[in-house]
Amino acid sequence: MEPIALSAALASFTEQWSPRIVTAVNDYDVRVAKVEGDHVWHVHDRTDEFFLVLDGELHISLREPAGERTVVLPKGSVFTVPRGIEHKPYAPAPTAILLFEPTGTLTVGDRHDDVPDHVDATTGHALR
Amino acid sequence: MEPIALSAALASFTEQWSPRIVTAVNDYDVRVAKVEGDHVWHVHDRTDEFFLVLDGELHISLREPAGERTVVLPKGSVFTVPRGIEHKPYAPAPTAILLFEPTGTLTVGDRHDDVPDHVDATTGHALR
């Protein structure tokens, strides 16, 4: 195995909201994705989900017990969505993110709103 | 919980080779560290270890079955050291890294050479 430049990984595909698996850490994946516009409201019942913004800006709306709010992650920021919290990512402009989550985690979670055509319901694609 | 800017996390401490825990993802930690010079040869018998270079350049020497080699990670590159592979990180200049590994993972692994004074043998410190 050799180191992987995230810029090269991101340059290897064009699809939005369609994560690529960069490497595995035990039974977790490190994934990168290009995103813009709305994802879909969804929830992972059994796992937290980690976001790092590599470029651009990611908004994550959260439906917490206390109510709904949106956190904003500028480039270089991180946030973990706790398991069981319904959330919807959104990017106002082309954005690149890195995700850390258990292998097999579905992009649209265990429960979700109707998945629009521009969102890829996947457990991540291999990097080519 | 609020998003955390990695730049602010890194600005909150000065110690080298002394990771700070930025957030948790299930039973894994996301840690950041400032590093320069040599770490120590060590091995994690039961876990892989993920490195992302945020700034600077990290070298990781590896003692693999086929022999010893060193991988070089420029800024923006990632690498996973497989469990059971003895390794020694080294940074030729001040460098910032992000790590994913199970909570409780010791910086010097399960087996290691003598730990020099400049290396902090820790499972990670809380971010203040």
TrEMBL record, chains A, B:
Spell out the Gene3D superfamilies in the cross-references: Jelly Rolls
PANTHER family found in the cross-reference section: 16.7 KDA PROTEIN IN WHIE LOCUS (PTHR36114:SF1)
Pfam families recorded for this chain?
A: Cupin_2
Query: What protein is this chain from?
Result: Cupin domain-containing protein
Q: Residue spans with biased composition (Basic and acidic residues)?
A: 109-120
Q: From what organism does this protein derive? A: Streptomyces justiciae
**InterPro entries found in the cross-reference section:** cNMP-bd_dom (IPR000595), Cupin_2 (IPR013096), PKS_Associated_Protein (IPR052044), RmlC-like_jellyroll (IPR014710), RmlC_Cupin_sf (IPR011051)
Tell me which residues make up the Cyclic nucleotide-binding domain: 9-79
Q: Where is this region: Disordered?
A: 109-128
Superkingdom of origin organism: Bacteria
